[in-house]
């Protein structure tokens, strides 16, 4: 890539998943689902990854302030856990990534949403249902920047139709320098199309489009849109 310094950076640790489940990827400002289907072993390794191309002269403008990480557990029979951050973060310059280790095959118990909450002092992880179901372990990371990165966030519940919503971004972002991170809790009983979410930045960076395949009172997404001022996504 000429004088640019490009890197392939895993942003969530690998985890083992069923070959017929899916992974979330973020590419060219869009996030989406990659289906995993093969005739090989029952288990596969999946990375959620991001490619950033940083200019050697201006890329340093994205200055990392801190990384906090830890493991949380949504207890047996509970729908959520709240984590207190060791140091409060500026939630307009920080984003959350996480992976989970569930012991169940139903999305209503294992699809976990996560968000930085309480003005940057906490993280909240949720699932749709809990009755009598095993605990879920969550490995999380929060990266906070002092400059060069801006983050917008929000949530949306899909009580029914329509199953697509546009979330306004203010200010608008540059889609070539931005990506969306979306997590989804839903009350479906099996891993089919209804268990997954799609998102993309549209309308020249003015909106985040989020789509699901089924609605219900506990079907909701937590979203983050991250923009690196001096990078290409």
List keywords for this structure.
5-stranded antiparallel β-sheet, 233 residues, 17 strands, globular, mainly beta, disordered N terminus, 3-stranded antiparallel β-sheet, single chain, 1 helix
Main sheet attributes: strand count, strand direction, barrel closure: 5 strands, antiparallel
Terminal CA distance reads 14 Å
The count of strands amounts to 17
- Tally the helices: 1
Question: Given the C-alpha coordinates, what overall shape results?
Answer: globular
Query: Which strand order do you get reading across the main beta sheet?
Result: 2-3-14-15-12
**What average pLDDT do the residues reach?**
79
Helix content: under 10%
- What series of H and E elements makes up the topology? EEEEEEEHEEEEEEEEEE
List the helices and strands and how they pair.
Elements: E1 5-18, E2 22-27, E3 30-35, E4 43-54, E5 63-74, E6 80-84, E7 94-101, H1 107-110, E8 113-117, E9 122-126, E10 136-147, E11 149-157, E12 164-168, E13 178-185, E14 197-202, E15 207-212, E16 220-228, E17 231-232
Antiparallel strand pairs: 1-4, 2-3, 3-14, 4-17, 5-10, 6-9, 7-10, 8-9, 11-16, 12-15, 13-16, 14-15
If you had to describe this structure to a student in words, what would you say it looks like?
2% of the residues lie in helices and 56% in strands. The protein is built from one helix and 17 strands. The strands form five sheets. The chain has a five-stranded antiparallel beta sheet, with no helix packed on it. The N terminus is likely disordered.
